[in-house]
Amino acid sequence: MRVGLISDIHGNLPALEAVLADLEQQRLDHVICLGDVCFGPQVHECLGRVRELGCPVILGNWDSWSLEGVPSADDPVTIMLSEIGRWWAEQLTDDDRAFVRTFSPTLEVPLDDAPPLLCFHGSPRSFTDWILASTPDDDLEDMFEGVTATVLLGGHTHLQMLRRYGPSMIVNPGSVGQPFSQWWPREIRVGHWAEYGVIAIDGPRVDVELRRVPYDVDALLRHLAGSAMPHKRWWIDSWNTTVAH
User: Considering the domain boundaries, does residue 242 fall inside one?
Assistant: First the structure.
């Protein structure tokens, strides 16, 4: 079985189209979206493309907040993100919201003679949990209490990762629409590529491929520059590129 993994699209249509074109070359049995289609400049279009795939979609934090309201914030960066998120949520149609309500918090994919694959966004416990290469095992024990799975599949961090946890493997395919090339404690910078993953399972053998494909970043940022989104200059500058106001 070969499964394509996409996550954290964040309304980036050029990146999504590039990933879907590459996915078509991978001879896949299934595609799974690990959440956060929402929160981005072309959310309506991206939701439409994901709907066309007919694949399972996990509920991400921004997917949920786009329906239920963005949490309050108290630091400058989070305040800007909250205001951007509220503006983008207002652009959703009723059909968009109805589709997002079909997203599942978790998903088990059964395997022959082995524990299942388990899909989530942040962790099975919460879509806001962060699982990094440096996350202590003690913290993971709380997140995965009672969970038995061959492979644990999540997104949320925008960082590709392959990590062993006990008898299981944790896989994060990275972000389609907003992969991080620089992370805390320095200023966040977004990479000029789109990320996804492929997992292949054949009996006891598990192969994981973390892929990166190019796309037209300037097309995305030109679209954004022409919008009425709040804080758009700050958002564009996170790509560390030159696009006119």
Answer: no
